[in-house]
Specification:
Layout: H1 3-17, E1 24-26, E2 28-50, E3 56-61, E4 68-69, E5 74-79, H2 81-96, H3 103-135, H4 141-191, E6 194-196, E7 201-206, E8 213-214, E9 221-236, E10 248-253, E11 256-273, E12 278-285, E13 297-314, E14 323-326, E15 331-333, E16 335-339, E17 343-348, E18 355-357
Antiparallel strand pairs: 1-18, 2-9, 2-13, 3-5, 3-8, 4-7, 5-6, 7-9, 9-12, 10-11, 10-13, 11-12, 13-17, 14-15, 14-18, 16-17
Helix pairs in contact: 2-4, 3-4
Length: 359
């Protein structure tokens, strides 16, 4: 006879001899599931930590914890003179480099171009006149050469004036564009002093107080959508290959200890956390609790398989050898099927209503 079973029987008989009735149960017909355990938290859809794009002192909060917010709404104001001064300097530079600020220089060069054109036109007429005279054998070669030289000089003067005008126009356009871009960047940096919401929802937590100096790496608050909730679950690396999006989940929350809520697996992120050796998964409620808050603890069973109307017994009534002890003292070898953390399916060896004694 198996020694462990003999010891089991001895303990049972000893308990009976002391006048205590052994605990017993009846084999029942019910449902059983095979599931993967996961733990996690409740998160708001779009939940995020609020950060600033610039460093500075918190001047004031425009909202408080629990306030409803909308996307783009100012949340807080930072005090930092550098962006404001840079924006003012960029504005001055943009104005000084604009086309309107250089209008006088541009007009002067345009006048020079007009004058050069007029001289070229006059010298061209004089050259043509002198050429006609020369063709009539009137005048000298020296006079013709002088007119030709004056015309060539006027043409070069016009080209130089046009080059100066075009160069100034290019410089002005470039300086104006650069000044406007610098002004836009400076104004953007200045607008970063006002931190705005990225979502429609609620302020769940404010993490910093007015007067504190913060950097771009300092979390300032937690905000999110308070009308839509998700479950962020951690699945052990040994179980992650068993689960697929779309599987049903039975969820228990510490805040609703006596209730089980339905959810569905939506996504499994394909990278493992090396420290916890778990994979992060995301699920959504099919049947949600009436009231939820961010970061509530949850325990979840991701259903891999479910069977209805099968014989089950509590796991503690099954020995390591796959045997059970009946109320009459006989031991029976049973064939098992599905097993969860509480029950085990009996495929053969027992029938409904059989009485078993707990070890």
């Amino acid at each position: 006879m198996n020694r462990s079973f003999c010891l089991f029987c001895a303990i049972t008989l000893a308990a009976a001899s002391c006048g205590k009735k052994p605990e017993s149960i009846s084999v029942q017909t019910e449902s059983i599931t095979r599931a993967v355990y996961a733990s996690g938290i409740v998160k708001s859809a779009g939940q995020y930590q609020v950060f600033s794009n610039t460093a500075g002192l918190i001047s004031q909060w425009y909202v408080k914890e629990g306030d409803s917010i909308r996307e783009g709404q100012p949340l807080l104001l930072l005090a930092n003179d550098a962006p404001r001064l840079n924006a003012e300097l960029a504005r001055i530079n943009a104005e000084s480099s604009s086309a309107s600020a250089n209008a006088a220089r541009l007009d002067d060069l345009r006048n020079q171009v007009a004058l050069a054109r007029l001289r070229l036109s006059n010298d061209s007429l004089m050259l043509a006149r002198q050429q006609r005279l020369w063709n009539q054998q009137i005048g000298t070669q020296a006079e013709l050469d002088t007119r030709q030289l004056a015309c060539d000089q006027s043409r070069k003067s016009l080209a130089a004036a046009l080059a100066r005008l075009q160069d100034l126009q290019k410089q002005t356009a470039f300086a104006e564009a650069r000044g406007n871009a610098s002004l836009a960047l400076s104004r953007s940096a200045e607008s970063d002093l006002v931190v705005k919401s990225k979502v429609n929802g609620r302020v769940f937590s404010i993490l910093r107080e007015p007067g504190e100096f913060i950097s771009t790496q300092t979390p300032l608050a937690v905000a999110g959508d308070n009308s839509d909730w998700i479950l962020e679950l951690q699945i052990d690396e040994y179980d992650v290959v068993k689960v697929r999006p779309g599987m049903d989940i039975a969820v228990r929350l510490d805040s609703y200890k006596d209730s089980v809520f339905k959810a569905q697996l939506r996504k499994v992120y394909p990278i493992m956390n090396e420290r916890s050796r778990t994979f992060t998964a995301e699920a959504v409620f099919v049947q949600a609790p009436p009231l939820l808050y961010p970061n509530l603890n949850v325990e979840a069973n991701i259903v891999l398989e479910k069977r209805d109307k099968v014989l089950t017994i509590p796991r503690e009534y099954l020995s390591e050898q796959g045997e059970v002890l009946k109320e009459d003292g006989s031991r029976v070898k049973v064939q098992t099927g599905l097993m969860d953390y509480r029950k085990v399916e009996i495929v053969s060896g027992l029938k409904e209503g059989d009485k078993l004694i707990r070890p």
